[in-house]
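Worked problem 6 (solution included).
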Amino acid sequence: MKISIITVAYNSEKSIGHTIESILGQELHGGKEGMKPVEETALEYIIIDGRSGDHTVEIAESYRVLLEAKGIEYRIYSEPDRGIYDAMNKGIGLAKGDIIGILNSDDWYEPEAVRTAADTFAEKKCDLMYGNIRMHRTDGSTFIKKARSRRFQTSRDWNHPTTFVKAQLYKENPFRNLGIHDDYGFFLQMKRQGRNIVTVDRVLANFRMGGASNHKDIRAAGRRIMDRYRYCYRINGYSRWYLVECIAIEAAKLLLG
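Solution. The predicted structure is:
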């Protein structure tokens, strides 16, 4: 099994090193309690940079020797793009793995993330899997956001940085590049297609809060509500009642962080 990890970056010199080091730290050959070893997991790591104006590419390049010494195939591309989902689509098109994970340049994996993905796909024969995530607030505090699967769908149950998908599904269903929640839109698309989706009760990744999807601003929250409603729920055939869920999510961000 070959797994491709894609990181999209733009002016990420402050955080890209931490992200890459989490790839270097992957325990690829099992041994963790509760994890059934798989024969071999080949790992490919692709960085798609949007022609950064800082030292992002130089920092990324400085890890090449270490990554390749561990047997990780490493590629860096730097060119202008039409936004984060256009960049993700580029990475997906270039990926040679059977399974694809997407890790943003502000986030990082737990050491057993890739191993857990390999084991889960081998054992469950799933199309898509995701696990728990540790959320890091700007004040330094953290909390765990659990991975769940329920009849009433909410993004509070899903965590993109912990998501791994069969490469064929990503290639056949590229991100629509319509809004800032296109990753969740893809997840809902897979659910509507009846794909075999598995959750794992294990923290697989870490997420820094404070980005575009968490900015505390009434107008921005209003745009995010309509973005999620139109380009996640309605475009995938979900009920108009999901507008209530979109409003509730943004209200919780404004009140609770």
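Discussion: The longest strand covers residues 197-208.
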